[in-house]
Design a protein that fits this description.
heterodimer, A: 296 residues, mainly alpha, two-stranded antiparallel ribbon, 11 helices, B: 366 residues, 15 helices, 2 strands
Amino acid sequence: MPSFDDLKPFIVLGFALGGVFAMQGVGLVVLYQATGVLNLAYGAIGAAGAFLTWELIDNDLGPHWLAYTACIAFAGVVTLAYGWLFGPPFAARDPLVKATATLGLLLILVGWMQWHYGANAHGFKLPSENHYITVSGVRVTYTQLIGIVFPIIVTAATALFLRKSKLGTAMRALANDREITSMLGVPVRRVEAVAWFGSGIICGVAGLLLSQLVGLDIVTLTFFVIAALAAALIGQLKSLWGTLIGGFVIGIVQSCLATPNTIWANSGAYRTMTPFVLAIIAILWVARKRQVVVQT
Amino acid sequence: MRQIAWVVVFILFALFGLPFLLERGWVPLPSHSATSYWIGIFTYTVIYSLVTLGLGLLIGRVGLVSLCQFMLLLVGSWAAVRFDQLWPWLPYPAVLLVAGLVTGAIGTLIGLPALRLSGLYLALITLMAAAAITVLLKVQQFPNGGGGFWGVKQGSPISQISRPSIALGDTAFYRYCVCVAIVMFLIAFWHVKTKPGRAWAAIRQSEATALSAGVRTTVYKLWAFALAAFFAGVAGGMLASPPGVNINQLRTQDSIAIYAITLVGGVYTLAGAVVGGLVFRLVPALFEQWGIGVEWFTILSGVGILQVLLTAPGGIAQQVPHDFGNLGKKLYGAVTGKNRAAKAAAAAPAPGPAVVSSVEAVEPTS
């Protein structure tokens, strides 16, 4: 059994990794709670934004901060446009159909990225990559720090927003029952638009950070959403805090499995299974008492 | 009766017509690639249509969604290579059968949560399983053939099992695959037409009702998963024959892609599975050869899936004949001058067509 001191650097790394899972996971849950749509294109939208940033920087079009803003704005606008166009026709459908529809957006974005940017990897560096602090012998870049802090702030802010603000209350009502909410005089489409745009903004920031933490690669970034889904599933697609904690737990477990140990010599090779195995356990745990699912 | 005639014509064309035309270069395909290239593409098409067949059954008949079907295909390949290494004396059909059975068992295992989950959660748990199996197979150096069951041969990324001795050539192997596929489609057809098909339909409408009507939902749900996985496993066995599979094919996202393509092809008809196979492999190859770029295929399939979900639940397999039928009627009317009567019928208050189309969407015809 490795001692705690041996594990320390891996735990630090685990937090940095967990932030990555938590970031997208929280964004997914926010939208799912507000609109009932599990946006599988979440990774693709962020990736497209990050590629746009790269294009702007590479061609020297405007200052860098503008390029970063462009990524966030792009993600917000694309998400909003999708929600505005395809939200209403799918509103009454099964959550699975809504999620499948976002696959359409995913494929369109991936195709466009591959056509426009090619499959060869590009890269750009956020200024936060150049600074770092050292925690128990591990170098943590500012990007990683932001990656840890950002999901926490988003979770806290969203939780507060949903609970305290009028708009947040409307959003929760909307998630519960769209028809009744509209009967109560809530401008359903406008509230939904805010939810889509907000989640798009989070998606843009996440895309920007992930392009640094995971690498600027079309397929990797797009399908990173599968791993992030694992964090969201640990939060039952409901709880923002659960998702946040789930993300960090996944990160820490995965990182600690890389520790050389005597109990399970080959644990490192299997460590990327962590998010999926934990998600499966989480789903099965929820389903353990359910017998027959009666659909209404 | 007319349907059977069409199916027979299609089978005869797939078995004899297509290879004949390809070998003579009479097919309007881009000519700058060799015949064997297109035969290979069509072989893949047949193999993938078995995956879409199983997935289509699950989605269209039982109403369950599995996002690990492509992974099960690769599990089938893996099992085929492993058992071929373990027992080299095993004849080819037996290898396919064993691959199918092993995959069927694994598919049933993945389907177990389906007893308590449905909809989105079931889809997601199968996706997670697919991602986890990807890692497992990667660590096992998929499907790297060495001696014995766990053997690994260093330095050879591609592993394969030899083709059956009666079908060594490309065209012969293509025909062999078509024959295997026909058997699988017959099994599927038989299931749909008899007791399991009725049980599945009941489960799809309402599980509680099915249960109260005395349908053994547990058995039939698991059986659907097992059957779909069996088809994928047999297809995987054929995929493991030359040119063989390699580790680069281990991609979780392909399971998502084949789900999308299955929906686009059509899940309420068995013909949809064939269309799905064609869309999954032939269309991208055509795009590539025509110099359009596979990216546009990806974009088109994205548009296609939105279209299917919004307006055409039956996918290409039902929508295209339907649209062509309408077009034919319109043209016929224009030529014979009978369109005035048709217009009058359309102008009359007609709730009929709308109801009919929604019934079509709910009630699968095979």
